[in-house]
Amino acid sequence: QVQLVESGGGLVQPGGSLRLSCACSASIFTCSAMGWYRQAPGKQREMVAGIRRGGIINYADSVKGRFTVSRDNAKNVYLQMNSLKPEDSAVYYCHVDGSNYWGQGTQVTVSS
């Protein structure tokens, strides 16, 4: 059973930063293609950023220039979020590409 465990969410003021982490328990190959998604109340889950096969990185237009996705050699993926806005508030999930594996989510709230 693959487990994805997110951490790093919290409450932050507008303009602040947070760093989310996701620990993947699958193989290095499986964990090499992962994405971050978010879901706000009443809205559909949307892709935020991802590291795909071959090291391809993509971002949602709404976070380009503010968020950075990265990974290490230990099957962890990170999401550095800077210049946070209230509209970034959501539950953030990590996901293995092409699978039904999702983490439990971590809440990010941007509010003054």
Structure description:
- The chain is 0% helix and 46% strand.
- With 112 residues, the protein is mainly β.
- A 6-stranded mixed sheet has the order 2-10-9-4-5-6, with no helix packed on it. It has a 4-stranded antiparallel sheet with strand order 1-3-8-7, with no helix packed on it.
Blueprint (SSEs and pairs):
Layout (H helix, E strand, L loop, with lengths): L3 E4 L2 E3 L5 E7 L9 E6 L6 E6 L5 E3 L7 E5 L4 E6 L8 E7 L9 E5 L2
Average pLDDT level: 95
**Biggest beta sheet summary:** 6 strands, mixed
Q: What's the helix-strand series?
A: EEEEEEEEEE
The proportion of residues forming helix, as a percent range, comes to: under 10%
The radius of gyration is 13 Å
Number of distinct helices = 0
Poorly predicted residue ranges: none
Topology, number of strands: 10
Q: Determine the structural class based on helices, strands and strand pairing.
A: mainly beta
Widest sheet, order of strands? 2-10-9-4-5-6
Query: Strand fraction band?
Result: over 45%
Which descriptor suits the 3D outline?
globular
Distance, first to last CA: 40 Å
